[in-house]
Each structure stands twice: as structure tokens, then as C-alpha cells.
Design goal:
Helices cover about 40% and strands about 25% of the residues. It is α+β, with helices and mostly antiparallel strands. It folds into two domains: about 130 residues, PAS domain (Beta-Lactamase), CATH 3.30.450.20; about 170 residues, 2-Layer Sandwich (Alpha-Beta Plaits), CATH 3.30.70. The strands form three sheets. Strands 2-1-5-4-3 form a five-stranded antiparallel sheet. Strands 7-8-6-11-12 form a five-stranded mixed sheet, with helices on both faces.
Length: about 325
């Protein structure tokens, strides 16, 4: 490792050496920059702007990617593992040469262990003894991306069941309506409400009620295709959205009724809900409940998402008003 590669200070001879105070100040400055280079929590490779050779890397660059100091030194940028499988590495360096400043918000690099590490890549140039040096600051943004992913998850999914929430359901419904117009096929939106859910909370507490909602979500997902949407609308209300049924209305209605019956049967099976007990074996609560299901069949001429939801919701309440455990299908405007 070179003595002061982070700063590349101009060399001085005894003849033109600065006075003692100046020399001390220069050495102190070099020492500070060296400490910054070695302790930075960004990976920092220093490149020769003319040859693309790596002249030095700091310890965090080695820690982050797993390559040794020797494996970096003297190599051209595209000869080193993290960049070697990137066809655009030479183009990236050409951009560094021409612009002097380059920024990549999310660049994937591969470590020696094979892990893909998302990084933020920022470069700038400076002159050192007549040689142009490109300093690259490479920041590991894995934690930041994980927080962003979590934020997106919380924004579009129900925290308890991990199902899509109303916001994501609205987006999916809009996409399904557009697909109906393109294909001419019908789709369905199903509104479900668990019958007498309040009795579960009253008898066993909200923790058991939450377990029931989680298991309901699992059962609903198992009844539909992966491409279909199961969402939690709120409380004990769920929505199922299924597109691409059939272009024939009678066949589409038959498919809708078949799916609704399958879901009704699945939800009516007994639930075995395990309640963890601190310092003791879990307690199992057996519960059986049914669902009131309203189905709105819609096609290419449907007016609005709100109208579809309202039709399904009204059909569901009609089923519930007749004692629950019923399916009502509304195909009036489909």
C-alpha cells in the first residue's frame, strides 16, 4: 500500500522543503486525509484517469466486497470481480473520464461470496502531480433499500395478514377493468364478511380474533390463482378480485359462483387457533364460522371502480341480512 494514496501529496526535496511549521501542517493535513480514507464507511477506490488502473482502495472496500488489497491494485476497473461481469464497465469508465463526475443511484455489485450488494456510486476527479485521479465513493445501500421495501410493504399491504390493502386493491381493480376492455372477458369482485366475528373477540380476546383473520387470509389465497388478488378491506372484511373469466357472460357467472362456493366451503371448515402461553404449552381454541359473500360480475362497459365495490358490498349485505353463510351474485350491469 502506498504511503499516502488518498491525497497523493506533491513530493518535496530537501532543497525546496517548506519551513518547519509549514511541513508540520502539511504532514498533519496528510495524516487527517489518510485517516478519513482508511476509516470511511464508503468503499473508496482511486483510479488513474488515463489507464483505468486502480491505484489504491480503502479497508471498507475490501470488507464490503471481500477482495484483497492485492487483488485490486494495478487492475483495470473491469478486471476486478465486482465489475468484471458488467459489460458496461468500460463505458462507465469512459463516462468517468469525460465528465469527471458520475452518479449511479443503485448499482449492483457482486462480492466474493456471491452476494449482490446494491451500492450508490459517486465519483469525482482531482489532479495529483500532473496525474488525474478519479476517486469513487461506493456506499452500501442494502439497509436503506430494505427500509424502503418495508415502507412500500406497509403502504400497500395490511400489516396483520400481509394481504394487499385498499390502496393496492384500487390499483389492481383499475388494471383489471382495463384488461376487460382489451380482452372483452368478464371479471369478478367478491366482498366477504365473516359471520359473527365479534363473538370470537368477545369470547377469546382480540389476539384470537387476529389469528382467525390471519388463517382466513391463508385460506382465501389457497382458493385462487397466484395472479388473482386477495385483499383485506378492513376489520373482518375481505375482497377477492379475479380477472380473465370468460367472454361469455353465462360461463363467467358460472365460474364466479364456483369460486364463491369453493371459498365459502374453505372458510366454513373448523379453525384450530394456537395461542402461545409464556412458560407453558400453547392453548388451542377451536372455532367454526361462515362468511357472507357478495359477488359483482363486471365487464368492459363497467363505469367505475367505486360502482363495482358498491355492487359487491350491497350483494354481501343482502346475503348477511338473510342469516349469513350465503352467496349473492350481482351481474346486473355486467
Amino acid at each position: 500500500m502506498k504511503d499516502i494514496p488518498a491525497t497523493h501529496p506533491a513530493r518535496t526535496s530537501a532543497a525546496d522543503a517548506p519551513s518547519d511549521p509549514m511541513l508540520k501542517a502539511l504532514r498533519a493535513s496528510e495524516s487527517r486525509y489518510r485517516r478519513l480514507f482508511e476509516t470511511a464507511r464508503d468503499g473508496i477506490p482511486l483510479l488513474n484517469a488515463d489507464t483505468a488502473q486502480i491505484e489504491d482502495v480503502n479497508p471498507y472496500m475490501i470488507e464490503m466486497l471481500g477482495y484483497s488489497h492485492a487483488e485490486f491494485l494495478g487492475k483495470k476497473l473491469w478486471e476486478v470481480g465486482p465489475f468484471a461481469d458488467r459489460g458496461e464497465s468500460k463505458e462507465m469508465f469512459a463516462e468517468l473520464q469525460s465528465k469527471g463526475y458520475v452518479r449511479y443511484e443503485d448499482l449492483p455489485l457482486k462480492s466474493t461470496a456471491g452476494a449482490i450488494i446494491p451500492v450508490e456510486f459517486v465519483s469525482n476527479t482531482y489532479d495529483c502531480d500532473g496525474t488525474t485521479i478519479i476517486q469513487c465513493n461506493i456506499r452500501n445501500i442494502t439497509e436503506r433499500k430494505q427500509k424502503e421495501d418495508l415502507g412500500r410493504q406497509l403502504a400497500f399491504h395490511d400489516e396483520l395478514t400481509q394481504l394487499p390493502n385498499r390502496r393496492l386493491l384500487g390499483d389492481r381493480l383499475g388494471q383489471t377493468m382495463a384488461a376487460c376492455k382489451r380482452s372483452g372477458c368478464y371479471a369478478l369482485l367478491m366482498f366477504l364478511d365473516l359471520d359473527d366475528f365479534k363473538l370470537v373477540n368477545d369470547a377469546h380476546g382480540h389476539a384470537v380474533g387476529d389469528l382467525l383473520l390471519i388463517e382466513t387470509a391463508v385460506r382465501l389465497r389457497s382458493c385462487v390463482r397466484e395472479m388473482d388478488t386477495v385483499a383485506r378491506f378492513g376489520g373482518d372484511e375481505f375482497v377477492v378480485l379475479i380477472g380473465n373469466l370468460d367472454a361469455d357472460k353465462t360461463k363467467a357467472r358460472g365460474h364466479a359462483e364456483s369460486v364463491a362456493k369453493k371459498i365459502g366451503t374453505a372458510l366454513a371448515m373448523p379453525y384450530l387457533l394456537e395461542i402461545p402461553q409464556e412458560g407453558a404449552a400453547a392453548t388451542t381454541v377451536e372455532h367454526q364460522c361462515t362468511a357472507s359473500i357478495g359477488v359483482a360480475l363486471f365487464g368492459e362497459h363497467e363505469s367505475s371502480p367505486d360502482n363495482i365495490l358498491k355492487r359487491a358490498d350491497t350483494a354481501m349485505y343482502q346475503a348477511k341480512s338473510r342469516g349469513g353463510n350465503l352467496i349473492r351474485v350481482d351481474d346486473s350491469t355486467a
